[in-house]
Amino acid sequence: MMPTAAFSPRGESRAPWGRVLVTGGAGFLGSHLCTRLLDAGAGVDCLDNLSTGRAEKVAHLAGRPGFRFLEGDVSGPGCADALTGPYDLVLHFAGPASPTARTERPVDVLEAGSLGTRTALNVADRDGARFLLASSAPVGSDAHGGLPDDADPVCRRHGACAEAARFAEALVAAHAEAHGSNAGIVRLFAGYGPGMRTDGASGPGAAIGQALAGRPVTVVGDGSRTYPLCYVDDMVDGVLLVAAGRSVRPVDIGGDEEPTDAEIARLVIELTGSDSPLTFVEDPGYGYAEPRPVTGFAREIFGWLPGVSWQDGLERTVAALRGRPDPAPAPPDGAAREGTGEWRA
User: Fold this and answer.
1) pTM of the shown model
2) Which residues contact residue 331 at a Cβ distance below 8 angstroms, ignoring those fewer than 6 apart?
3) Backbone φ, ψ for residue 8 (5° rounding)
4) Positive or negative CA dihedral for 325, 330, 332, 337?
5) pLDDT tens, residue by residue, 44-56
6) What are the distances in angstroms from CA 279 to CA 211, 261, 326?
7) Structural element, H or E, at residue 184
8) Are 252 and 143 in contact (CB under 8 A)?
9) How many other CB atoms are found less than 10 A from the CB of residue 113?
10) What is the C-alpha to C-alpha distance for residues 320 and 302, in angstroms, rounded to an integer?
11) Of 34, 107, 242, 334, which is most buried by a Cβ count within 10 Å?
12) Rounded distance, CA 125 to CA 306, Å?
């Protein structure tokens, strides 16, 4: 494995890795990671089964020296054999970023968190690579990701996405303890930016998609719910800084500004120049609080600080999405309280 070194992820120094595997690399955050790593001089294998990722997110990287797109399922049998490497860093970003998201593919999500994580860990161990899991604090958790004693894995509050994240984290920690693996975890909160999906039911992406389509921009409840928004460039910085270290302890990466749903919606309408009305919809009231990042560890140990304000970030995102809005169908009845995180793969 290549030794880690002082590393500035914004292109001021070269990446301390020769070749990197990014699972879920055709997702929102994964595609940004692939681009940044290539820009920093690393070779990148981008693995994605395109179940939720999109090939066009990495189409601009085709033909760049050192980039390979591998269509495949990290949870599938024999996947490790196709990942020839050798790798210096494995970023496991396959799966949904938000524990509040509901999915029509719960088995696939659970397999990505279990079988997929084990495959990615084994590949990293094979090559002596640093391993980093992308995770998120479970729904109903406290600030540090802990769950109440009565957490029920089959109830609506703790569905497949949350359980997959919990198991993946436990597997990584156990693997590191049992095998001495150089493995770590980043917990990601409310990432947004160019390339994000706009077909959700809430959050910045949904507001942008609705405004660009000229439909009502919906706000849940009274609009006072807040989001710890983190612009994608800042999030990529945090991920790569943690990757360049040796921390096993989970590291939160999320924004320190928390605009409300209503503030986000109003600014989106202004930035898009849309005539869309602001519409308040009933809050289904699932009874849990949105988890918030605790970023002191990321700041003190890794020197990470978000640098893009939520207003500037939304302006950049709207400008980028104007020419490429995703189809954003109206949410079905009862789905207005979807997760705020973006899908990674």
Assistant:
1) 0.86
2) 200, 201, 206, 218, 338
3) -110, 115
4) positive
5) 999 999 988 899 9
6) 12, 11, 21
7) strand 183-188
8) no
9) 29
10) 30
11) 34
12) 32
